[in-house]
Amino acid sequence: MSNYIERVLESVKAKNHDQPEFLQAVSEVLTTLRPVLEGNAKYEENAILERLVEPERIIMFSVPWMDDKGIIRINRGYRVQYNSAIGPYKGGLRFDPTVNLSVLKFLAFEQVFKNSLTTLPLGGGKGGSDFDPKHSPHTPSIRCSDREVMRFCQSFMLELQRHVGPNTDVPAGDMNVGGREIGFLFGQYRRIANEWSGVLTGKALSFGGSLIRPEATGYGCVYFASNMLDTKKQNLEGKVCLISGAGNVASYAAVKLISLNAKVVTLSDRSGVLYIAKGMTEADVRKIMKYKEEARGELEDIVDQFDGAKFFPKARPWQVADHMDCAFPCSRQNELDGADAEYLVKHGCALVAEGANMPSTPEAVDVFLKSGILYAPGKAANAGGVATSGLEMSQNSERLLWSAQMVDNKLREIMSAIHDNAYEAAAKYGFKGNYVMGANIAGFTKVADAMLAQGF
Question: How far is Cα of residue 189 from the mean position of the Cα atoms in its chain?
Fold first, then answer.
């Protein structure tokens, strides 16, 4: 089986040599599957790995739109529909200059296993554009206006609507795609399709959204971390926590941690790291959330509004504190490298739960695994967002709005099930406590067996 894995990896590298993020994601998964492939010749006989490393469909298209100066701008739009063996494609849309095919293929590939872990019938996909809502093309020092974002979203959906639907592909938000963008996208789809359906998740409550959806990824990450600590008969109370990011995932992870009496000392964005040694209050985090939502500015501009705050410009949170118990990388891929990981472990960090997608480099993951600390990869720890998107789809189908308590209870149950499935899969194959092995094996087995059952 090792020859099988190596043969597939070599083929993937040859075909995708210019896609480093995708290669990193594929290598990370395939190299952990040896235990489940051994003794199961059916996977090789049916070319399951070869089929898994190729998206079922990739759509790339032009997005022309007009800025506020009347100048026509052109961006690229993408949708990677990766695997639909267990359900309709499901995954977010990302608007950012860093978006390219490699990034979206890696995200869609990860999404397949993440969605499999949720226990819900959801396939994997991802999409987006290199559109930059944070910098207007005619005046880069300011953000795109609401009207510019609306015109872009309407043009983007004009093409995307051909490829999505409530039983085919159900996109959601991701980086720089929040409630405003989802609203514009949904409005355009509804006009074109002449129907109201659950074709997008992350909608506002007034038109089919779900309670707890904005909080879900951050809350779910904390719930997963709590389950990990339960295996050591510990909890989060009093734990010093580092968080990267200042968007929905990071902010709601911070809110949930504070409610559990943990001490959150950092949040961050592109401008740098906000550090409060005594710990942030929920009011502090809410103030940052409001500022980000309304002014859409950077943390460096509001440091003086927090007592005892320090700011580290152009830094990341991982080396600004002398001691920490837990780290929650909630910003973007490869934001935590090997040196950061070594610093964290050396200074007391005993748990890392990823709120972002693949935020730790392979070198960092090696450090965490060799040190024996509790480490949860994003495909397991941050699955709460897509899980609650699945719950939003259920509510849309039933034309119901569940209570916040009901959604939160279901989220807790799903995150507990993801934890237990990953933990038990790792233990079954002799890797007890290794959530990387467990998450990959559990996610892979469900998808692979569905593919086998459906033929090729």
Answer: 24
What's the average model confidence in pLDDT over 340-360? 97
The topology under which CATH files domain 216-372 is Rossmann fold (3.40.50)
Whether the Cβ atoms of residue 293 and residue 285 lie closer than 8 Å to each other: no
First to last CA, the chain: 21
Intervals of CATH 3.40.50.720 along the chain: 216-372
Sign, Cα dihedral of 28, 34, 36, 41 = positive
In angstroms, the CA 91 to CA 357 distance is 12
Ranges in the chain annotated CATH 1.10.285.10: 1-54+434-456
Q: What's the predicted TM-score (pTM) here? A: 0.93
**Residue 126 annotated among the catalytic residues of the structure:** yes
Q: Domain 55-196 falls in which CATH fold?
A: Rossmann fold (3.40.50)
Tokens of 260: 């559990």
Catalytic residue, candidates 90, 105, 114, 126 = 126
Mean pLDDT to the nearest integer, 389-395: 97
Q: How would CATH label the architecture of 1-54+434-456?
A: Orthogonal Bundle (1.10)
Average pLDDT, the chain: 96
Nearest Cα to Cα of residue 384 among 171, 221, 178: 221
Burial 336-353 (b: 16+ CB within 10 A, else e): bbeebbbbbbeeebbbbb
